[in-house]
Amino acid sequence: MESATFSTTYSWLDLVFTVIGVCTFLFDVGSDLWVAKEFYKHGDFMWFGVLVGFMLMSSVVVQLFSWSWLQYDRHLVDFESQASSGNTVLFGEAKRVKLLLVLHLCHLGYFIRHISAIWQGFCVWWRGGCGSEFAVYLTHDLSMLRLIETFCESAPQLTLMMYIMLRNNHARMVQCVSVVASTTSIAWMVVDYHRSLRSFLPDKDKQGWLSSVVYFFWNLFLIGPRVAAVALFASVLPCYIGAHFLFLWACFVIWAWRQGTDFMDSIGGEWLYRATIGLIWYFSWFNVAEGHTRSRSSIYHTFIITDTGILLATWWFYRDAETTQSYAISLVISIPLCYVLGLMIKVLYYCCFHPKLWRPADFEKYSDGGEPHIFVQADGASDGGEPHIFVQANGASDGVKPHSVVQANGDSFQRFNKRMSQHAANFYTTNTSSAI
Questions:
Q1: Please, what's the b/e burial string for 180-200 (b: 16 or more CB within 10 A of its CB; e: otherwise)?
Q2: Is the pLDDT at 277 greater than 90, yes or no?
Q3: Alpha-carbon distances, residue 417 vs 22, 125, 136, 156, 274 (angstroms)
Q4: Cα(274)–Cα(55) distance, rounded to whole angstroms?
Q5: Which of 16, 89, 140, 385 is an S-S bond match for 417, by CB 3.0 to 4.6 Å?
Q6: pTM of the entire structure?
Q7: Residue 89 confidence (pLDDT)
């Protein structure tokens, strides 16, 4: 039995991704404010209100998640000493918590997390790798917050901009910039989130750019047609799009509840998470529970294909045939084809690029040709039930080679981000038999 560890090295590429994430965030906020100003300037007060509403809703949700996680992290061993010993900018040890609360109330908590992650990454580079685990921990939380912010703001905003362009049958420069900013935000989120999930696997260094490219196009070709279909439906029946969203959102929240999600550390926080998952599912599939992943994914995509077909049929029936003549047939054909292409790319990803994380019920020896097996187990140990990871590398059928064990508990939180590790287990685990 020999010890092994997951990759917790903070590389210069991680710092680059964090800096680009900040730039993308600032560009997205700047474009939002520019669009809002243009709407107000041209007297489009309704669009101004809707856009500002999206921005506020997204910011409130992200701040709530960020503050909840900070409250949880404060009770982890050594977190306060790591966070207040010069590793995070602007925070003194005595008034750090109060300052963080004020910043979150001012909707600056998410931005400060970016700055803190950059500062910690710079310190890691300056000190030659010291504090690398804490920097990795911070970037994991950022990747999840980017995911939430993207689907709470960028996806609805992209739908709104496409709706306005379809409704008016023309597009201003500011609207085109907003569409590009929202699309860039979504695209960067999926790549960054993919990288963060892969960091929980021992073969992180084997991840190639091709895997990220395939993952990016899979999501692009599934999310794009969905957003376009919703925008088309809203352009002909704007009064019913709200009812359509609320009905599907309520169904998705109930489905998330029935799957027994266990992501947050409080009941209120868990329902906030389920409500957010319902919003994400309105645009894209996101696995939140372990076991039966393929069947749940099939149910979801079948439902979304049916719903998208109904939205397109409704738009075709109620559209203005004269003004939409130049692009109507192209849209009706290309949107379903793009979605099917996205499903095909998804199958390609799972066949060629998706690492399998096995977690059977008991720790038995396997003889499948020497591929490593990863077992994720969460038990109620005295450290508060933090997850334990076991990596077993079997040899060939003769069972000669040893296996390794990796344990991440509350005493070494920097090595194991509980929140992201759960999503990694859900995303990569196959043939599972019990919940984390």
A1: ebbbebbbbbbbbbbbbbbbb
A2: yes
A3: 21, 21, 9, 29, 20
A4: 20
A5: 140
A6: 0.78
A7: 44
